[in-house]
Amino acid sequence: GAVVSQHPSWVICKSGTSVKIECRSLDFQATTMFWYRQFPKQSLMLMATSNEGSKATYEQGVEKDKFLINHASLTLSTLTVTSAHPEDSSFYICSAAVQGWANTEAFFGQGTRLTVV
Amino acid sequence: GQQLNQSPQSMFIQEGEDVSMNCTSSSIFNTWLWYKQDPGEGPVLLIALYKAGELTSNGRLTAQFGITRKDSFLNISASIPSDVGIYFCAGATGAGSYQLTFGKGTKLSVIP
Fold first, then answer.
1. Dihedrals φ, ψ of B74, to 5°?
2. For B91, which of A36, B14, B29, B60 could close a Cys bridge (C-beta 3.0–4.6 Å)?
């Protein structure tokens, strides 16, 4: 399957600082990437849909000024958690849809464990 | 919004036993996907289903896309310890949208 790389795998930051998470499609171009948040022992919750060259679409209840998404190229989307607080601590996962394939397949990055202290 | 009901929530089985889990929805999906997630990792795609009634295998895994397009099941035969993890079903409506709706997951524990 297609490879999606997420960086960093884990990060610890101080409250009030900002953290950037990168999501790269390594062997394919992705016009659409998705950002999820996962709490312990729970399913994946879609935060936003990232479209290359346009503004991201945020799910209801997700603050767009808090979670900044930039999809500057067909292989890279970034999520920046601004002014992070302890309640932002979570597992963040991105996925990318394979462009040009007839069927829907989404491949996931390995996730980023964010801890805000 | 769309919701997927996945069951069972968790299961403990003996190594060598077969496993079955399923997902149901109140609305139609055009694609069903099954993922496995290990702790601290992202989900890994196991099987993708695109046609109603489709039955697909991947090694010891078999999944089916329900005729009504509102359900799917995943079977694992002859379980082994490395099958341990959380299994998620996911549905997509298609029509140019790659957005997935996830079930709540089935946590599988295999007793050696």
1. -125, 130
2. B29
Q: Would the CB atoms of A34 and B98 count as touching at under 8 Å? A: yes
Split chain A (117 residues) into runs of 10 and give each run's mean pLDDT.
Answer: 90 97 90 90 90 88 94 91 96 81 74 96
Q: Please indicate whether, in this complex, the C-beta atoms of A43 and B104 are within 8 angstroms of each other.
A: yes
* Contact across the interface for A107 and B35, Cβ inside 8 Å: no
> Strand B10-14 to strand B106-111: parallel, antiparallel, or no bridges (unpaired)?
parallel
Q: Is A21 helix (H, G, I), strand (E, B) or coil?
A: strand
The confidence band for B49, taking pLDDT boundaries of 50, 70 and 90, is very high
B48/A contact by beta carbon, under 8 A: yes
Question: Across all residues in chain A, what is the average pLDDT?
Answer: 90
